[in-house]
Amino acid sequence: VKRGSDNDHVAVCGVAECPVGVLGSVAEAAEDEVTVNLLGCSSKTRLVIASEAIAAGVEVYTAASGKVQDATTSVTYYKVGVSLTAAAADGDTLEIDPCNPIKVVVA
After folding, report:
1. Which residues contact 27 (CB under 8 A, 6 or more apart)?
2. Kindly report the CA angle at 64 between 60 and 65, in degrees rounded to 5?
3. Rama region for 40: left / alpha / beta (φ>0; ψ in -120 to 50; rest)
4. How far, rounded to the nearest angstrom, does the alpha carbon of residue 15 sit from its chain's CA centroid?
5. SS in 3 state form for the chain?
6. Residue-level pLDDT at 89
7. What is the C-alpha to C-alpha distance for residues 22 and 106, in angstroms, rounded to an integer?
8. Is the pTM higher than 0.85?
9. How far is CA 14 from CA 44, 51, 67, 98, in A?
10. Is 78 in contact with 27 (CB distance < 8 Å)?
11. Contact status, residue 80 vs residue 101, Cβ threshold 8 Å
12. d(CA 83, CA 68)
């Protein structure tokens, strides 16, 4: 997720937007409180949603709709960690070792 419209809100992060963390809970309705697990400031792993098949042991980057991917094309991304488990397809959950978001520009 990324910062939302103000300090009390978060929003789904896009491919070229700097994420602040991973949702630890899901809101049932607008204005419900959620837990955000910050990237890069914990020794705990994080569960994320893949946008494609991803092997274990590869760097993962921001993707559309708040998901992660392993491959990058000509655009700006943010590295968010290394996959510890694999994902077979779009929508699968995988575990990552998170890092502080690192901007990556692929020309």
Report:
1. 33, 34
2. 110
3. left
4. 9
5. CEECCCCCCEECCCCCCCCCEEECCCCCCCCCCCCEEECCCCCCCEEEEECCCECCCCEEEECHHHCEECCCCCCEEEEEEEECCCECCCCCEEEEEEEEEEEEECC
6. 97
7. 24
8. yes
9. 24, 12, 8, 18
10. no
11. yes
12. 10
Residue 8 has pLDDT above 80, yes or no: yes
Per-residue model confidence as pLDDT tens digits over 26-82: 889 989 999 999 998 888 999 999 999 999 999 999 999 999 999 777 789 999 999
**More reliable by pLDDT, 99 or 42:** 99
